[in-house]
Design a protein that fits this description.
With 719 residues, the protein is mainly β. It is 14% helix and 42% strand. The chain has six domains: 84 residues, Roll (SH3 type barrels); 63 residues, SH3 Domains (SH3 type barrels, Roll), CATH 2.30.30; 111 residues, Copper Amine Oxidase, Chain A, domain 1 (2-Layer Sandwich), CATH 3.30.457.10; 97 residues, Sandwich (Immunoglobulin-like); 106 residues, Immunoglobulin-like (Sandwich), CATH 2.60.40.3470; 187 residues, Zn-dependent exopeptidases (Aminopeptidase, 3-Layer(aba) Sandwich), CATH 3.40.630. The strands form twelve sheets. A six-stranded mixed beta sheet has the order 48-47-49-52-50-51, sandwiched between helices. A five-stranded antiparallel beta sheet has the order 6-5-4-1-7, with no helix packed on it. The structure holds zinc ion. Zinc ion binds next to loops.
């Protein structure tokens, strides 16, 4: 396996230095314009005044620094970094070559000894891993891994790597590298710090074969001061002369301003930051080793620093910071690159990439951003190249963009205007049809209907992938098309849709607003406005709801709902359902189906669940906030419906009365008629979970819900 933890001791004296210094003993060496470049692969690497460990340590350099390789003597390279030069052992340098790199694009991929799946599996690589392409053989690639292993990988498991080549080490690893056990997700590793076992509020864990450990607890135990900045979502740890900055979700934390490359970003678990072991163990100069047999992480803090005999060198010249961020507004998705002073920028544009080079700037904060839009992801990669900051933005195929300068030249902005990313027609229920329109940003729209013609006007969205003409051979929708309407400086996208016969439509957006469902049902199938109940058995299909002991909530809900329907039908009350079998409806669709029926009331049927087996009993929810007038005017009816249901269930089932509750649940918010949602009992409770499996309990629950509905309807007719 290739997922590794490296154990390497670090000369602690050197950790006192800032990024790099050189003594004056060393003469400056002439640079060569076409020298090869190399990337420092060790965490903190000594630069020596001659080619061997017997020579003085002239300075240190941090991981991922790019150096010029001037000459070679034995195992030592003479290198130049900025204005300084010296010797570095070859095992700590990677050559930057013109080799082609691939990036693994699947979570876990097998590497094989030959080009075909019948060949022996020799290793596994993980999403984001870099590989050197050696040869293409049909559908297989011969590749070299970061640890130098040569093997084969299927070509559809990798994409082309656009990052600089620094990530791949050409030399053999400096020390034997223990590998991790296969991730079971069940084991929490033990952490030993300087021989003592640590206790944590949030346990270390193995995820995707990486050991993730609590950052603050370990850093503090190593003697660092740790601060968390909520606004920037960044952890900063300071110990002696070492400053570690770790933005959440970034794979490039910095140690004294120099970036480390992580395989996986830090994450928050129960309000604690978990970060990859090797980084946490080594960033402050300690060592981290993995004891596989005992599932134990062994951490060692560095010994106290030795006295410094010579004065620290003058600091490296400081550059202005360049910050990158993404934001969304009415104009679209914006990638903003800003600085506190006017930028001097060179922009290279192609249809697939925009490259910004900012003179005399260094990236400050996050250097990599991924922004999802529609079904795509926009990737923004920043890097520091000598004195300049470079930002590269990959533009997905077919996506338009524009660039602009803002704030008196202090900001460069790349904007991807909002556009329609997909249009789809589907059927739903027994005879309904729906059009789903997706966009990269929230859609704003108005709609109007004249006869069989529906018009939806979208503001601030370009047609994008939407076509001017769709023809359908379906029962309801006959044709549809999008066009752009420009009035003055305002452009709108207009959808015109024609149905074959009179249809009732209803619009509903997803919670993030990027998807609009337009749903149609045949007007002739709509029930006349008579008392009718829509029963909504919660969940269904891929959504199992809560899980009990050998029973899924979705099945209990459906069974009870059908029983309620039967009882109500016998009482002469009309009934409709959001589902009558094991199918999946989104929350918007459940409410929309209810609305389309024109029903008098809507009742959601659910089972409760909780993280622990303690809680038990019955509760009923309604929603009628004063902030939503159309719901608030139904306040009394909604509360009354919930109360009738709750009372009837308590009387019949005799479980703990948890009461009537007010809450913003999607189906209650989106239903136009009075609605309530019952939680019959706790499916994860040992006793109530057992009850919910029994037919006679379900029958009693159904009877109670039917009684509550009948009582409410009788009462509401009186009004
Ligand atoms: Zn539920």
């Amino acid at each position: 396996m290739l997922r590794e933890i490296r154990s390497k001791s670090i000369n602690t004296l050197l950790l006192l230095t800032v990024a790099i210094y050189l003594t004056l003993l060393l003469g400056s060496l002439p640079g060569s314009a076409n020298a090869e470049t190399g990337i420092v692969s060790g965490s903190v690497v000594n630069i020596r005044s001659g080619p061997g460990t017997q020579y003085n340590i002239a300075g240190t350099i941090y991981k991922n620094a790019s150096v010029e390789m001037l000459s070679k003597t034995g195992e030592w390279y003479k290198v130049k970094y900025g204005t300084v030069s010296g010797w570095i052992n070859q095992s700590l340098l990677s050559k930057n070559t013109s080799e082609k790199y691939l990036k693994v694009n699947q979570d876990v991929v097998n590497l094989r000894s030959g080009p075909g799946i019948t060949n022996k599996m020799v290793a596994q690589v993980y999403k984001g891993d870099s590989l050197v392409l050696l040869e293409v053989q049909g559908e297989w690639n011969k590749v070299k891994t970061a640890s130098g292993q040569v093997a084969y990988i299927r070509s559809d498991m990798v994409g082309e790597e656009n990052m600089p080549a620094a990530a791949v080490s050409v030399s053999a690893p400096a020390s034997p590298i223990p590998s991790l056990p296969p991730a079971t997700g069940l084991t929490n590793p033990i952490v030993m710090l300087d021989g003592k076992q640590m206790a944590f509020e949030v346990l270390p864990r193995i995820e995707n074969n990486r050991v993730m450990v609590p950052l603050r607890a370990i850093f503090e135990a190593m003697g660092a001061q740790v601060e968390w900045n909520q606004a920037t979502q960044t952890a900063t740890a300071v110990k002696d002369n070492i400053t570690v900055v770790l933005p959440l979700n970034s794979t490039q934390p910095t140690v004294n301003g120099v970036a480390w490359q992580l395989d996986v970003p830090a994450k928050i678990v129960q309000q604690r930051t978990l970060a990859p072991l090797r980084f946490v163990g080594e960033a402050l100069g300690g060592t981290a080793t993995w004891d596989q047999a005992n599932c134990t992480v062994v951490l060692q803090t560095p010994p106290p620093p030795e006295p410094v005999l010579q004065p620290l060198p003058p600091p490296v010249p400081q550059f202005e910071g360049l910050r990158m961020l993404s934001e969304r507004d009415d104009s679209g998705l914006r990638i903003v690159m800003g600085s506190s002073a006017k930028l001097e920028t060179k922009i290279d544009k192609t249809s697939s990439k925009v490259r910004y080079e900012f003179s005399n700037r260094q990236i400050d904060g996050t250097s990599y951003i991924e922004v999802p839009f529609g079904t795509q992801i926009l990737k923004v990669q920043g890097s520091n190249q000598v004195n300049n900051a470079v930002v590269e933005i990959q533009i997905p195929a077919g996506v338009e963009y524009r660039t602009a300068t803002e704030l008196e030249g202090k900001k460069e902005v790349l904007t991807i205007p909002n556009f329609i990313t997909g249009v789809e027609r589907k059927t739903f229920g027994s005879s309904g049809e729906k059009i789903t329109i997706s966009s990269n940003l929230p859609l704003t729209y108005t709609s109007s209907q004249t006869g069989t013609r529906l018009e939806v006007v979208f503001s601030n969205v370009l047609p994008g992938k939407a076509l001017s003409d769709y023809k359908y051979d379906s029962r309801l929708i006959s044709s549809m098309g999008f066009k752009t309407k420009t009035t003055g400086s305002v452009s709108q996208t207009v959808l015109t849709l024609v149905t074959n016969k009179a249809a009732k439509f209803s619009l509903g957006s997803s919670s993030d607003g990027t998807t609009l469902n337009i749903m149609f049902i045949d007007q002739s199938e709509i029930q006349p406005r008579v008392p009718m109940v829509v029963l909504d058995p919660g969940h269904g299909g891929k959504d199992t709801g809560a899980r009990g002991y050998n029973v899924n909530e979705k099945d209990v809900n459906l069974d009870v709902a059908l029983k309620v329907g039967q009882i109500l039908t016998q009482k002469g009350i009309k009934v409709g359902y959001t589902r009558t079998d094991d199918t999946y409806l989104s929350l918007i669709e459940e409410a929309t189906v209810g609305n389309l029926y024109n029903a008098a009331i809507f009742v959601g049927i659910h089972c409760n669940s909780c993280d622990n087996p303690g809680p038990s009993g019955t509760e009923t929810w309604y929603y009628a906030p004063s902030t939503i007038p159309e719901l608030y005017i139904q306040k009394d009816e909604r509360y009354s419906l919930a109360t009738y249901l709750q009372k009837a269930m308590i009387a019949k089932l005799g479980l703990n009365d948890r009461g009537v509750k007010h809450g913003n649940l999607a189906v209650l918010r989106n239903t136009q008629m009075p609605s309530a949602l019952v939680e019959m009992a706790f499916i994860n409770s040992p006793t109530e979970g057992e009850l919910l499996k029994q037919q006679n309990f379900r029958q009693m629950a159904a009877q109670a819900i039917a009684d509550g509905i009948a009582a409410y309807m009788k009462e509401s007719i009186k009004r």
